[in-house]
Amino acid sequence: MELLIPRLTYDGAITLVKFQGSNHDSKEANVTYSIFVMKLLIPSLTYDSAITLVRFQGTTMIANITRLSTSYTYLPTFSPSTAHVKRPLLSFGPKASTKLRTCPAIVCKELRLSSYLLSDFGSESAQMTIDGAFSTAWLKNLQKPMGSSVLSQENGSRSSCDAFQFIAQPSSIPGCVLQLAGSSYLLRATAWELYGSAPLARVNALVYATCFADASRYTDLYQINLTLFEFSSSADVALAYVKLIQHLAVFKGYQGLGVACPTLSNEAFAALKVAEDKFLSVSKSRIQLLKLQLLHEHALHRGHLKLAQQVCDEFGVLASSVIGVDMELKTEASLRHARTLLAANQFSQATNVAHSLFCMCYKFNLQVENATVLLLLAEIHKAEYNVHSIVPPVESLPKTNLKSGNAVLGLPYALASLSYCQSFNLDLLEASVTLTLAELWLSLGSNHAKRASTLIHRALPMILGHGGLELRARAYIAEAKCYLSDPSFSVTGDPEVVLDPLRQASEELQVLENSNSASVDLLVLLVSRLDEGSSQYHELAAEAFYLMAIVFDRLGQLEEREVAAATFKKYVIALEHPEDEEDPILNGI
Amino acid sequence: METDEPQATLPFQLQFDKPVASQIKIAEWNPEKDLLAMVTEDSKILLHRFNWQRLWTISPGRGITSLCWRPDGKAIAAGLEDGTISLHDVEDDSGNVLSYEDRTSRFFPAAPRVPRMPGLVSGDTGFIDDNEDTFRELSNSSHQRFNILCSGDEDGIICFSIFGIFPIGKIVALSKDLCHLIVLCFGELVEDRVELNDKQTSRHCLVGLHCLLLDTSIFWKRAGISLCSFLNSTILWLGEAMEMDFTWNLHATCDEEIDALLRKNELHQVAQQASNIEDLIEVIRASLSIMCKQWSNAMHTFHEKFDSLSPLIIDHGLDSCPQEEFISLLGGARTSPPVHQFLVHSLGEVGLKRVAKAVQSAGKELHLIIRDHLQPAAEIIGFRTGELRGLSRWRSRYQGIGLDEKLINNATEKAGMLLIQVERLMKVLSTVVYQFQNFFAWLTKCIKLLMSEPSDQLPSFNSELVIIFLKFLYDQDPVRQLLELSEIDHSIEIDLDTMQRVRELVQFGGFSDTEFLRRTLAKEFEQLESSFKEAFLMPFTTISKKILCEDLLPLFPIPSWPISASLKVPTSISYFKDASPDASTCQTFQLGLVDYISFRIPDESFSDMPNSIGIARGFMHDLSSVKKGYTSLEAVLLRVPDGYHCVDLSLYKESQIVLLLNGTTSTSESPGNAQMMIVQASDLPFVSVLRSANPNPWKMHGLKDSGVHLQMENEKVRCIPHSVTAPLAVSASRGVACVFAARKRALVYILEEDEDEVSDVE
Known about the structure:
Chain A is mainly α. Helices cover 65% and strands 0% of the residues of chain A. In chain B, β12 and β13 (193-196) form a beta hairpin. Chain A: Keywords: Cell cycle, Cell division, Mitosis, Ubl conjugation pathway. Chain A: This is Anaphase-promoting complex subunit 5.
């Protein structure tokens, strides 16, 4: 059963629950059912975190902490509410009958229930403690310079500060309770990633990492199922760190400030390395997965398409070959595959992959993935239109309408994706779909510039607040393009309106991938060549500088124009001469 | 209900005549609905329906100096004499007008409220609680309309607050040495509201910012002019309704104002988030103080009982402390006599139970507060700052109103740290409560053993935890120290592992301030608060700088200084479509909307023009028209008929002015008589006021020769068989006037219907 669960799909889970439920209400059925409920609560909650949570529930039952069980087991009783999708959008929008079991406010309320755990564990936990466990801990601590001072004689002087020493003591809360309480923060972090609140996602992961990461330290104080517990504990901690690293990669770029660890200039990768060391034994697969994800993103940004493809293949290998199992991994693998193809301008292949992926997601009711894939399809159509002019010259937009049919084709996908996002409260994804939609409108001609800019302005607060660097840069560029292609807009009148977003875009891109300051370490290992490749990053940067050069030209500021043009040229050259080479690091993976 | 059947010739029909409980000081009709809000002499606010049914009464407990409805009629603001403003919601808002969505309500359950001290019921707080409730509702419901509350206080400071709650700007227009002012605010140079302060010189302020161009000019002290700032909590709402009507007009105004118009939406969003965050900060503050209080109470109960042990030990001549005695008891040594005496006699089983219960219930209460108030509040603050951060990154829009990304980022970090602190508090609290429980369980067992009673049914305990308790908790209180803000900077000892982990987390995007765990929760909250203060101060100062003072029109002087509070000068300001075609230059202005400022001129001001009423119009465009070579400011002086003096006046619709006149001859025996009169102001012979030519600042004085004598016979007049007192409440939308007579009577007259009748007669 344990082994089965991670590989179940929703449908599988439902069937299993029904089956189990009809036979006997065993603990396993409970567990499975709870996972199912969790999944419904938060669409695309990762299986691991759901399982973690539910496994804790199991632990709780063992530990006979009834309160939490009651709070969590009444989850299934939520009345189906909210978000009834009114208009079935085209053939591939969400089904008309799609209903969300819960609204986000209820999810939030439920997650808050976890705080009952800490307040109510009291009376029942006494029998879980092993006499003598604390003494062992004290003795151990005696050897440490700053450790617990329960047994030390010298601090007879009782200043008021002493009270705070108490906080440094090993906590007497049973580890399993702590874990269970902590896991709600992981769930929160996941929920906020989906709902779109970057600061809350990060803070919740941080709360877990700060307050609960040591929960396993105290496990030996209590009589519980140690192996199960320890495993889940460190898997959770690993998950928290994975979330933090992902956040770093998206918001701080692959390289960055280097303040925290001066030797490694690449923050996300450096953090990854530390995490790898930290969780060497435990959850190799999770860290491994993260590593592949980061590598793939990075390779795409830099234009190392071969490397990207290799990483994709690695992904595919990780998943089980059985149908309906490891769905998350499989979707991610083919999503990344389609992205790679898109980056390589192989549109028809990318479309094929995306289409079959969509069919699969639709079949297995993977709603969030549905929205993502639809967005990808829209983007493929957008890119297909744009491809022959890497940077669509603004003035010539109406003239190059030859291929605009493709952009029109992209619209329904974008709209369908939008309606998925709206029904599932996926606000950040919605903002990025809105951006794509605006880009599609923009590519249909300058008379749509107004509409596009309204769309962008609507999504901008969301994108700027919660979106990653790349998304932000894209939004800024699109905003500038809107102004530039609006015939009634005059650059000379207010150049800052255009220049400011462009400048910000180039800043964000700079942070995302500051190629010049790349240092020797891990990054060099990971990505052997800098400044090359036909990458998204180069494309965006080239676009930003191209537009900047145009604006400066119109303003008559020739010097600035030359600088911008030179930078543009640099990026275009990099774009046109991708030098993919075998990357030594891949062999090591 | 009509006590007085109107004669056919009487212009205004009396609707009814009702007694009122006490003398009315201020009365205002709701601009949208048939509601009349009144302030009594004893500072209660009454809300009546048009049929005089009373809806509710509030008494804020302090003197009320002014009263003002929000333009949508859904909230009322009362200015109190201590300078605060209280807002009261008349009904719940509904409907969503703005396109900007505040996501918070979608993702979170209702925001937590300020917790209340349980078991505290005090009778006299009833009203205050009610106020707080309305206030909170008001600030939590996301406001659909954009309203700015403009308030002035004694020190001559005019404040502008969005929703009446979030301050966005302030003009320290007048230091004490400047005289009081008329504040004239108008949006986009079109909308114009004036709050007239009292007496003496008057000052005009035009306000600028998001559709309000407020321009304040200061009348400075000149020879012979005394200074006083008398704007005592006068308030007014600047509404959205008008400004929307006149948006098209904007092109006539300068670029800056167009800019300002665009800022409106941004300001609304920022104010919405910020005012909610400020509310939540209050929730946290209240939670902390209540938790602290409750915990100290419980600890007090504990120490009260257990402190008697040390004297006992000393009495028995032992050289030790309670902890040591307990440890030796735990260790299985012989029970020492003092401990025996203490446990069996002074504490006893009952006493122990009582203490245990006190501690446990305090622990429960604290957990409840954390769960229902503290943690949700901290979480929502985190979310809202995240939203603000998104806005602050949109530099081209939000930098202009002073939203600073760095400051908001800083606040975001602090909000995150607070969440961690709350989590830690929860852990510490549950540990402490558990330890207490364990300790008490052990003591119960000991007592049973000492009393030789069976003890096998008792809950088990952990002896190691008892040791920890005696070592760290017996005479110390980590919970309180986390909660209480003390002057001495305690730094919390953190074990090495945690410290290392926090440092390591920096690489993973953790807080760069790794020392935050050493701070107490109270300290952290203090820092959070100040970081928010700093962040919100930026918009405030940025906007304040943009509020300019543009024009100044002295109306009349007041000879005595300081002005006695009893001296009230009736004033009224309103805007009318310029109906009269001959209104010369005014008409060239957009929409032909003209401001009318009417006021009674105190007799002391100009000795040679007694019993006069001044009306000025076209002031708001005057400055711009002067540049174009002419002046739009016109004024007229009305002379009240002999035998009467003006009690109050109010501008009514279609450029009419309603005057309330009292007969001067009434004696104390006779009920007195009064007149209500409507004058068509636009028909009056206005005279252009040339401002540069005349060195005399008192332009009104120049009109003394051209004053119009009002004749009772020529105007629409209704005789009121009582002597009347000051507030005259006129409702333009409903066409009624409420007059308060001296003997605690309220009379409502219908102004509207009567006009028809009169015209029929004519």
